[in-house]
Design goal:
By secondary structure, the chain is mainly β. The chain is 0% helix and 53% strand. A hairpin with a 2-residue loop joins strand 48 and strand 49.
Length: 715
């Protein structure tokens, strides 16, 4: 016989298969290693019995034993308990039961299919680290135990509190793990005092600080580690410096516990917020808005109140003159001067005022001086505005000059001749003449552009006016000297300057439109001018030498046409010379009718044949002068290609073939005599040879245009 399943669990049913077992059990037996098994079913070929242990299996029928069949029985592991339950992930639990085996070997413990690390193993108890929730299953030699329900949990862990210290009532963030997705019944305490939760997630909790730490998060009754936390004290002011101080100026507030950065903290002067310039834990710089007391408020905690006095300084905004001479009156404009006169300060010295109001003070310049001008009111000095009491330059003429030329300086306070010197870009220049109001100076070799002014005495320097020192351009040649307005010419020379900027080319006083400009070559269009004039380059207003040019008096000349005829609306080019480089006031005419210009150059003008033009002449009119004319027909002229016969008798019909005869009759001639046409179309004319006709050319005339001729012999 053979038994199946094999192996099988002890106490479970197995089927013994074979032959000649008999139809019923009767006194027959089935033994497992000599131990009789309880039979539950019997037939001649199969017996079902409860396995009492290992084999061999022997069936005995009527005292005759069968062969012995090998068989193995096993006992499956059974879990009776898991302790503790529930338990924290990562902690050790003990699984109690039976048939675990004396040693682990290849046996395993799983929690919901996740293998657990085994700490110890015996036949009735297994200790393992919890990887997660159950069910728990012990598998021995491939045989799994019952599945035992089990719940695991993870205690919350605080990793940090940010900031690590803060004032009570401010918000902090607790970072860590296993806080849970939502707060639910979970809590946060500071030294046992519950904190108000602002937001909650599995890894971060925002709370309002109630007091000192330690901080503990409790989730599902499981408390986290205790995390240290310190509460900061309220801010304290020890000094305000300077005191008193001007409104709008900066003072430094010294003290403790202001915090490393301002954040939402404030500084007030008598309740008025002050603008913060800088902030640290022990010093704050603010702009004074008014009197004190001064209070610093950090995270809702107010400091002690410190007394403070402010004042408003008189303020000078401008002087009517920043350069003045002795005896001149200067007006100081500003605010907070008061109604009671104080003093005018000039370079630290006090002077009487000529007039005084809250916004304006006048004084007479006492002598040569320069320095800051201000006012003194009730012992408080205003800001100062710089003023120099010296000569004043009002204008220079011209605003540019070449080396060796003179420049006139006009102004006041120059003093008598010999009172000072003239400076250009800080260097002395030659004085030609000097009066108290006018100085003439000559530009020396090596002079450079800069401010031109008058210096009186050792240091009384006037204001300056900018003077440009120019090296004039030099014109060496012009591509043509007999010119027609509209013509393009090239001016060659040196020192024209890279870009044109404000420079110009002139013929007399007429400015030439510039086409191109480089330092050595300029292309311009000739403007309208008369007679002979000098052409020059004006570099930023400074003129070059001149080249004499003369306006051309020659009429334009037409040499040929691109085609002798064209229909209205078609283009024709007129060739010749003297048309001028640009059209300007010029125009083209066909048979006395002005034509629309398509393009224009000195040697070619392309026009559109105008409607209404008749056969005639095409010509150019430029600068009041007219050209010769070239014959032109504003339509296709008639052309005779053939006659139906080379000879014909009087009365015989002749057919004239060709093109452009027109749809209506024109004039048909034979030997110069008009002949009546019998029929007329654009390509064919018929006529009968008239009496008295003589041999000669046959021709067709249409709209004043006569065709070629074909010879006809009259018999």
């Amino acid at each position: 016989p053979c038994a199946a399943p094999n192996p099988a669990e002890l106490g479970t049913a197995v089927t013994v298969s074979g032959t000649s077992f008999g139809a019923a059990q009767g006194a027959s037996t089935v033994a497992f290693d000599g131990i009789a098994a309880v039979v539950t079913a019997w037939s001649d070929t199969a017996i079902t019995a409860i396995a009492p242990g290992d084999g061999p299996v022997v069936v005995t029928c009527d005292g005759i034993a069968s062969n012995a069949a090998a068989f193995s029985a096993y006992v499956a592991p059974v879990i009776a308990a898991v302790d503790p339950a529930p338990a924290e992930v990562g902690t050790v639990v003990t699984i109690s039961g039976t048939a675990f085996g004396a040693a682990q070997g290849l046996s395993t413990v799983t929690f919901n299919g996740v293998p657990a690390t085994v700490v110890s193993w015996s036949d009735t108890a297994v200790s393992a680290l919890v990887p997660g929730d159950g069910p728990v299953v012990v598998t021995v030699d491939g045989h799994a135990s019952n599945a035992f329900a089990f719940a695991a949990y993870s205690s919350p862990v605080i990793g940090s509190v940010s900031p690590a210290s803060a004032r009570a009532g401010t918000a902090v963030t607790i970072s860590g793990t296993d806080f849970g997705a939502a707060q639910g019944a979970s809590t946060v305490t500071f030294n046992g005092v519950p904190a108000t939760v602002v937001s909650w997630s599995d890894t971060a909790i925002d709370v309002t600080v109630p007091c000192e730490g330690p901080v503990v998060v409790t989730v599902g009754g499981h408390a986290s580690n205790a995390f240290a936390f310190a509460v900061l004290p309220a801010p304290a002011i020890t000094a305000v410096d300077p005191d008193p101080a001007e409104v709008g100026t900066d003072v430094t507030i010294s003290g403790t516990d202001f915090g490393a950065a301002q954040g939402a903290s404030t500084v007030t002067f008598n309740g008025v917020p002050a603008t913060v310039v800088s902030w640290s834990d022990t010093a704050i710089v603010v702009t004074v808005p008014c009197d004190g007391p001064v209070v610093v408020t950090c995270d809702g905690a107010a400091s002690n109140a410190v007394a403070f006095d402010s004042f408003i300084r008189p303020h000078v905004t401008s002087l009517s003159k920043d350069y003045a001479i002795i005896g001149e009156t200067i007006t100081i404009t500003g605010e907070r001067f008061g109604s009671v006169p104080g003093k005018v300060t000039i370079a630290g010295r006090l002077y009487d005022a000529a007039s005084w109001s809250d916004t304006q003070v006048t004084f007479v310049v006492p002598g040569f001086a320069q320095g800051y001008v201000g006012v003194l009111v009730d012992g408080v000095v205003s800001n100062g505005v710089w003023s120099t009491h010296a000569p004043r330059v009002d204008s220079i003429s011209p605003g540019w000059a070449a080396v060796g030329t003179d420049v006139t300086i006009r102004g006041v306070g120059f003093g008598p001749n010999g009172s000072g010197w003239v400076a250009l870009a800080g260097k002395p220049v030659t004085v030609v003449s000097w009066t108290d109001t006018v100085v003439v100076a000559r530009m020396p070799t090596g002079a450079t552009s800069g401010y031109l002014g008058v210096v009186r005495g050792a240091w009384a320097t006037s204001n300056g006016k900018y003077l440009g020192i120019m090296i004039p351009a030099t014109v060496t040649s012009v591509s043509a000297t007999t010119l027609t307005p509209g013509q393009q010419i090239t001016v060659t020379g040196t020192n024209f300057g890279g870009p044109q900027a404000t420079s110009q080319v002139k013929i007399g006083t007429a400015v030439c439109p510039v086409v191109t400009w480089t330092n050595t070559s300029i292309t311009v269009t000739v403007p309208s001018f008369t007679g002979a004039q000098y052409l020059g380059v004006y570099l930023q207003g400074c003129p070059s030498n001149g080249i004499l040019v003369t306006r051309s008096t020659a009429s334009p000349t037409v040499a040929s046409l691109s085609r002798p005829w064209a229909n209205p609306g078609e283009q024709v080019t007129i060739y010749g010379h003297g048309f001028a480089g640009a059209q300007g006031s010029g125009f083209a005419s066909i048979s006395g009718v002005r034509a629309t210009v398509v393009s224009w150059s000195d040697t070619e003008v392309t026009v559109i044949v105008p409607a209404g033009a008749n056969a005639g002449y095409a010509g150019i009119f430029q600068n009041g002068l007219s050209s010769n004319g070239a014959c032109f027909v504003p339509f296709e002229p008639p052309v005779i290609s053939s006659l139906s016969t080379a000879s014909a008798a009087v009365g015989e019909r002749v057919t004239v073939s060709g093109t452009a005869f027109g749809s209506s009759p024109g004039v048909l001639t034979l030997a110069g005599t008009t002949v009546a046409a019998v029929s007329w179309s654009d390509t064919q004319i018929e006529f009968d040879v008239p009496a008295g006709a003589v041999s000669g050319y046959v021709g067709v005339t249409k709209s004043g245009s006569t065709s070629n001729g074909k010879w006809l012999v009259v018999k």
